[in-house]
Each structure stands twice: as structure tokens, then as C-alpha cells.
Amino acid sequence: MDAELFEDLRRAAGAWPLGFVVIDLDAGTAAGLSQARISCGSISAAPLQLTVHAGTLHGSWDLLDLSAFWSTDRINLDEATRFLSMRVLYSTQTIFREVYTLTERATACFDGKGLDIVYPSAARHALPRELRSGADPVAVLEGLLTEVTGQWRAAPGRTAIELSGGMDSAVVAVALSDLHRASPHSVHTAVLNLPGEAGVQQMSRRDELIERLGLGPDHVVPVAEHAPFKPGGVRRAGVPFAPSDGNTAEATTVLQQRLVAAGVTTVFTGAAGDDLLDLRPEERRRLNRPRTLRSIPDWLGPSGRDALAWLEEGPAPAPVLKYTTLTGLEPRWPQTMRQGLWPVSPLATPELLRFAEQLPVQWRRRKVLFRRFLGRRGMSEAVVWPVLRENFAPVMETAMRRWGVPLLAEVIRSGSILADAGLIDPDAVLDVCEDARAGGPVEQLSRPLMLETSLRSMIGA
């Protein structure tokens, strides 16, 4: 290929506005070693996981593909403690030492022997401003949302939207509906249906959205039927899964498999909507709504307690998107891609974030921007301002009490990977399990259960 043409193509690849990975290969060095440089863009929701073994560079977007590098002696104690204590850090570290994440805009350099990841400069972010007289943020949102969502050019009949009924997925559904006006009822919808009154409200709101927007076939999976760690689910069966696959991994897998069976190849989500319109710490303080961290578990073992001093060490520089956006998407995208679906989160884009960052607090608080947008599109009060809260917390608590706590006690008594690594005090965890069986709190027990069972599924212990 002509050198000038190659450079033009290389520059074009690096300027691509959506997610990308570019690999530059050098034929060799004077010592006969090949070299590689791997770089990625700012939308890095399913980043590469990289490691070097015997002079060979290995990589995948899915940690589960790197099974040759899993072992109990390679557990990253700092990262494991972050997971157990719910202290997420966006960095190159993974649950295993010597396996690294290529974070957004970073460059991994491989010289034939070792791997070095170079962080980019910190990204700059906008601050809130006063609106000009006559400014219409809702109209700006509509234009930006349609433009951003349209970049993926999803095919009619092969596209779905995870339509929970909430604000975030609803606004994405509006954009998809506008983009597919020529093919009405071609965009599939999907949902994990909540139990009880919240689930009835959820489905009623979704029915209105589907009818008004002209959306297509609906795929519904009752989340309680595939509750976390319920016997018969993938995690109880020992199917390998990553620690970060989340509370609804069983139900999500079933739903995604149904979409694939229906011919869907691309699934849109409302992920990152919370981050897009989130309030800054100083704004929360002014409104007397500060965000507090969960307390450190009392059942951490000696290695876990030692790691506490390092939990905030080594974060990647400020990303173009938000830390919370990237740490939220990082586990979701591989899980979806594992099923053969391409996930898209239009709300996790620099254009929309820069717009939202500049809005006054009254437009971001309680997602007023999204609610006014949906109201302008004719949605009822029930859709825009639902009475009941809709989330998975009750399902998770019920599942932990019925199946999770007994399973955690069982796996710890049979010999715990986390206990052997000093990450937990097994006796202390068993005491909390007993307290939970008597009606005590269960929230802190989900993390050691997810990590313990995940490591067992990955390492084969």
C-alpha cells in the first residue's frame, strides 16, 4: 500500500467518533523482536484485556477468553478488595495480576518481552452555564439524540431497545422510533419484568411507549423467575462468569438469547442516563443530598484490610466520558457481546455529555430534561412521573435470603478461595450469614458471593 494512503487511513481510523481499537505492528527490531502498539478511542465500553505470556501478547474484550491466565495465586488483592467493598476504580487493573485493561484513549506498547500501558492526558469537562433567553434545551436534546443514535445505522428488524420503562431507555426509544419511521414496528423491545405492583406499573408505562412510538415485537422475561443464584441458573450450574456480570446475570442471559433467536443483532440501551444528568458533589451539598460511600465490611480478612490503603491509588486520568459511565458499561458490554449481540448506549457519548454538563442544575435534577422531552412527545403523566420506584433491589434481597445466603455459607465451609487469599475472614462472614437468616441485612453479602462463585467458575476450584 502507498505510504501516503496508509497514513491517511491511519489518521481516519484514529478520528472515528464511535468505539475503535487500532493496532500498529512493526515488522521487527534489531534484536529480532516484533513490536505492537494498541490504542483506542474515548468510547471504550468493552475495552481490551491484555496480558503477555512467553513473549506473546494475548488480548480479548472478554476476560473469560484469557482462561490460561487465571489462577488463585494471580488474584489481584487490591482489585478484589475494591470489588468486595464496592470501591470501583477506573484503571488498568483487573481481578488478576498481569492481566490489564486498555482504558479509554490509552496506548498499550508491546516490545516482544513486556507490556506497558501509557495513559492519556486528562480530558477537560464543561461547567454549568446560564441559559440564554429563549433557549430550548429540549429541542437541542432531540436534535443531538437523533444525530448520535443515528451514527450506528441499525438495521430495521434486527434492532432492539432494552425498554425498562424508565426515563433513560424511553428517550433512546424515541430517537430509534424517529430513525425508523419508514419501517414502523420494526424495532424490537425487551425488558426484565419486575414482580408485584412495581412490575404492573412498569409494563403499563412500557405499553404506552410501545404504542405511541410504533415499536415492534416485545420480549419479556420475569426477572423473579431467573433470580440471582436461583437453582437451575447459569451461575449455579458453574458456567464461567465474570465477577462484574451483575445481579441480574441469569435473567439478562435468557433475555438476550431470546433476542438472538428473534434475529436481533444490535441492542440499544439507556445506560449512562444517570451519569449524563447527575449532579456534581457541590450541587448535591447545596441541595442537602450528598452521596455517601457504603461502609467498609467488617468481615474483610488481613489481605483485604491491608489493601484498604491502596484502594484509591492509580486511577486513569479524567476520561472524556465519566468514570462512572465507563465502570458501569465495562461489565455490561462483554456480557451482551458474549451472546452475539452488539450493544449500543447512545447516552454514553461525548456530544451528549458536553451538552448536559453545561445545563443548569434545575434541568438535570430529577432528570427534568428527559421528563420534559417525553412530555413534549405526548407521553402521559404516568410515564413521565411514575408513582412507584422501579428497581431490582427487592428481587436481589429476596434471592439473597432464599438462595444466596445459604449458598455463600456452603461454599465458605467447603473451602473458600477468598479466605485462603486472606480477603475475607470466613468466620466473620458466616456470622453475618447467620444474622441474615434471622432477618438481618444481606446487602453486603452479595459481593463475596459473586466474587467467590465467579472465581470458582473461572479457575475451576
TrEMBL record:
InterPro entries: Rossmann-like_a/b/a_fold (IPR014729). This is Asparagine synthase.
